[in-house]
Amino acid sequence: MIRLLGSVIILVGAGFLGLKAASALHRGTRSVEGVLTSLELLERELAFHLTALPQLFQDLSARAPEPGSHLFSACAREMNAGRCLSDVWPRLLEETPELDGVLSQALSPLGQVLGRYEAEGQQQAICAVTGQLRQLLSYRRGEALRLGKVYRVLGLSAGAALVVLLW
Amino acid sequence: MEKMMGFQQAAAVLPPRLRQMAMDLPQRVQGSAEEIRLRSGGGAAVLCAGEELPLGGGAVTAQDLSQTLELASRFSVHAVMDQLRRGYLTLAGGHRLGLCGTAVMREGEIYTFRHLSSINIRVARQVKGVARPLLEQLTCDNRLCSTLIFAPPGLGKTTLLRDFIRAVSAGEGTAPMRIGLADERGEVAALWDGAPQLDVGPRTDVIEGCPKAEGMLLLLRSMNPQVLAADEITAPEDISALTQAAGCGAALLATAHGGGREDLTRRALYRELLSAGVFQRLLTIVQKGAQRHYQVEVLK
Predict the structure, then answer these.
(1) CATH classification at residue B33
(2) pLDDT value, residue B272
(3) Which residues make Cβ contacts (< 8 Å) with residue B69, sequence separation at least 6?
(4) Do B78 and A79 touch (CB under 8 A)?
(5) Is the ipTM of this complex over 0.85?
């Protein structure tokens, strides 16, 4: 009975690990989607309303999906405290949960552009970043589709193999 | 106290080093300061009663000037590009930051400034009540007559116009009226986040940043003003818009630059303005010694 119970636990545990690995891949995809949507909102607002950045970040923090919402909220807070975006941008990228190294690297050039040039110049910079992010999204979606299945099956198979070995 | 707070609000856009020195100035100086001047390579100074008092703190650097601009624009150059091209920025509180430097030209117009050489922050001062004694002469049947304020630069035309707007809008000395203000350069109401930084009364609708003529016609179409106000009539289109507004029954309040009364008949633009017959009163400001005198003339 205990053996059977142990086997079930091993099987469920290994399966869970496989699912967790697969869900991490999907989370990475969702982060890119969230940042893309946030940047598209930022670009439109910059082009249409020419709002000052602290106000714009404040407004967008309520409308943008995560992790954009978190990042924009932190930007508004820092700028309202009189700190220049280019000085705080790298730190804010680091402190934003769900922004992994690749995403942070893609976003980092914006710190030197946002608020420092005319709206068109900023739009061009955002477009360049969103172009990169679209490529990243497409790559991550492919990975999530391909590796997600592999991780799930691998988790269950590894659990089953361990159970067989133990029996 | 109000004047001192105005100075501190204007000084808030200075870099921390200079801001601290400005805040440390005696209250008497803060209360009478008219301008804060920064010149690259020179010292920072505060203009009080026509005299520049050094702020101290050594030479102003290019970094100080660009930091001041960043703070004044709220780190958002794109939001103030139109103003930058005209060489100034409106600050919270209605203060005005003027810029000088190496201009970058595009298609014959200033596009931006590559390097800043000087910054001048003019502390906004509102003189409430200055229009009150004149209102009686500018009203008939408790309604405001269309009035042109005419004076040389620097005699307080805009200040007077602003106070007329405030008083008429609030119903001081006349029936309260809805006023549409075409504030092309943001000097009268100084909108900041949509709110006037200078008191233009409770019944005043302001359009800022667009050419006066266009602004006046837009106000006429959309806001149904009883009085239409504009600062500095300078173009034939302005006169055309004023004529159209007068035809719609709105009273007019406007200012124009000129050396003296004779300029109204000498300059073609003003001749046209007078011949349009849209104004019933002409208010001229004359400086005699330290005193300013206001003369009201009834126009036929």
Answers:
(1) 3.30.450.90
(2) 83
(3) B77, B89, B97, B99, B116, B119
(4) no
(5) no
